[in-house]
Amino acid sequence: MIKFGTRSINQFMQQQKDLFGHYKQPKIKEDSYVTGLKLANSLKGSELVPFIPINGRQVNFYYCGPTVYSNSHLGHARTYLGIDVIRRTLRDYFNYDLLSVMNITDIDDKIINGAKQAKQDFLEFTKVWEKDFFTAMEALNIELPDVITRVSDYVPEIVTFIEKIIANGYAYDSNGSVYFDVQKYVSDGHTYPKMRPEMNVELLQEGEGESQVNKQQEKRSANDFALWKASKPEEPKWPSPWGEGRPGWHIECSVMASAILGNPIDLHAGGIDLIFPHHDNSLAQAEACFNCDQWINYFIHLGHLNIADRKMSKSLKNFLTIDEVLKRYTARQIRLNFAIHQYDAVMNYSEEQVEQAISKDKAYQEFFQNTKIYLRESSVIGPQKWTQNDFQINYLLRNTKEIIHAALLKNFDFPTVIDAIDKLINQVNVQIANKTVRPPLLQSVVQYVNFILGLMGLNYQNQNNTSTDIQQIMAEVCSIRDQVKLAARKGDFDAISTIVSQKQFQYEKNLSNGIVDCINHFQQQVLVASQGKNKQELFTLCDKLRDEQLFELGIKIEDKDKQQASIWKQYDPKELKLEREQQLKLIQQKELIKKKEEEKKKQEELEKLEKAKIHPKDMFLSQIDKYSEFDEKGIPIKDKDGNELSKKQKKVVQDLWEKQNKIHNQYLESLKKQQQ
């Protein structure tokens, strides 16, 4: 049996179980809404436990918002994209009646210091960075919570909350500040800390902030933490029974969550870095105020984000803001990059992984574009009797639904969800290419894939408003362009003049005027080129219409072989341009790698040549730090101390000499050939 010191593995597991023995799993009641969902509950040591809301389908959900004092960065994206996906899944897939609350911390030591440096009022300072945060969230398509709370709006409620904790005997005032009495709390039978079993005084004091440095003498114990901080003269302050001051960090969430959602609360979320002391202290404060054993029923935490295997930090120069990343990648690509990682696991952000997300995003775009074309060109008036291919697609669709349902029940396992969607799309793509799937069935597949990707905030179908007008004109544009190319190959310039003179396109309601301008201008230029019988110019104009003019409008034309008509696809113009930039960057990176490999190979060849120039008799003579005597061929026979080389050592130097003799002779032969 494996031993842990003097403990058996069974004893160790029992101790771990006892550490979280305080947790009380909500019971299923008559009106309970049970879906089978299980969450990795930090109150249970991240064990998967059944999710049972307090009141039927209603779910009260609180999650920690940002402390607004600097740019929104990828760490924020990791947390709030994960929470956004969880919210969408709870609401749209599991059909819970969700009420979500997020706070804004606008009172904090870092904010006060930042405002001082900026020479601004602290609230003016926070509004700048709060705007930056919400702008970044909107750009990433992260939905707003139902309720937003700011600490500065809840100071009176915080004071009242602290008074209740004092009245219950779990806090004391000292020199104008108020501290939570951990020893009294624990001695009365409460558990602290609940989610991190071991106490960490260093982390506890780090969570207190700079303002509490050198204030240990005010506490009864080093483990006690501030609920209310006496303000310094230059700091923001509010009145309280203990003197002017401001709230401690941990009390803020306890108060704001309770003010909106009450006690108890179904679900609480935040980054794993907040688990201790912030979340453990928030739990203790609320349970001390309400004199209850369990304020939160489910606590979930989003995993750490590393940048290229290292913690993101300004000092390491790997700090990435959301704004910086959005200049290089689309919101969908960023969302996909996070979605392919389990929300509560450690995630490593790297350029290589982003490339995978870009590739996956491209595959999804092409799936929806190709199915759109297939459905556009298909008709339910034709044969609809299912073939074996249709039965296979239907089986795959149903099987995919079962796999995804099981994955979502298991703590929102989106990596498995994405893998299942990829397999479904790959199979359907084959049937589309072979034109062997019935349109109604394909429509069902498209709707399901769109719904599941929508849980991840990925929107492909509604990104472009492809109106009937645009469908009609683009069909004509492709037809005219195809006819011009075909006639140009034959040298039939009269036919080209007829083709482009038949119709002048007009602006119509809901029609893109840019497309009308493009095709009219194209026809005019083609007419001139055909009259001049300039075949090459005609092909150039066709390429320019495809690669520049329509591309700028978000229209991509794909040419098929000479026997097939070209097809068109509509994208967001900004995303299409960014895609081209990403492809160009990838090409440049490959060329750079190729160049470096060629330079390395060239250097190796030069080094090989220089080595070949050395006569075998001379190769060891310079190694006087190893050898002291050599034979007539220059082969060492004694080491540096004058001792004769062993049989094994002699064999090694003999082999090296023979190898050098061989390459030197080859070098001499090459010189002779060059001279001849």
Number of strands: 20
Biggest sheet layout: 5 strands, parallel
Radius of gyration: 35 Å
Percentage of residues in strands? 5-15%
Question: Spans with pLDDT under 50 lasting ≥5 residues?
Answer: 1-15
**Alpha carbon gap, first and last residue:** 79 Å
GO molecular function: ATP binding; cysteine-tRNA ligase activity; metal ion binding
Enzyme class: ligase
Pfam families: tRNA-synt_1e
GO biological process, one term: cysteinyl-tRNA aminoacylation
Quick take:
This protein is an alpha/beta fold. The chain has 21 helices and 20 strands. The protein has a 5-stranded parallel sheet with strand order 7-6-5-12-13, sandwiched between helices.
Structure write-up:
With 676 residues, the protein is of the alpha/beta class. Helices cover 52% and strands 13% of the residues. It contains 21 helices and 20 strands. Strand 17 and strand 18 (567-570) form a beta hairpin. The relative contact order is 0.07.
Provide the descriptors you would attach to this structure in a database record.
alpha/beta, four-stranded antiparallel sheet, 21 helices, disordered N terminus
Topology:
Layout: E1 3-4, E2 7-8, H1 9-19, E3 38-41, E4 47-50, E5 58-63, H2 74-93, E6 97-104, H3 109-118, H4 122-139, E7 147-150, H5 155-167, E8 171-174, E9 177-180, H6 182-187, H7 201-208, E10 225-230, E11 245-247, H8 249-261, E12 265-271, H9 275-290, E13 296-302, E14 305-307, E15 310-311, H10 322-326, H11 331-339, E16 347-349, H12 351-377, H13 388-409, H14 414-433, H15 439-455, H16 468-490, H17 493-501, H18 513-531, H19 535-552, E17 555-558, E18 567-570, H20 573-613, E19 627-630, E20 636-639, H21 647-675
Parallel strand pairs: 5-6, 5-12, 6-7, 12-13, 14-16
Antiparallel strand pairs: 1-2, 3-4, 8-9, 9-10, 10-11, 14-15, 17-18, 19-20
Helix pairs in contact: 3-4, 5-8, 5-9, 8-9, 11-12, 12-15, 13-14, 14-15, 16-17, 16-18, 16-19, 17-18, 18-19, 20-21
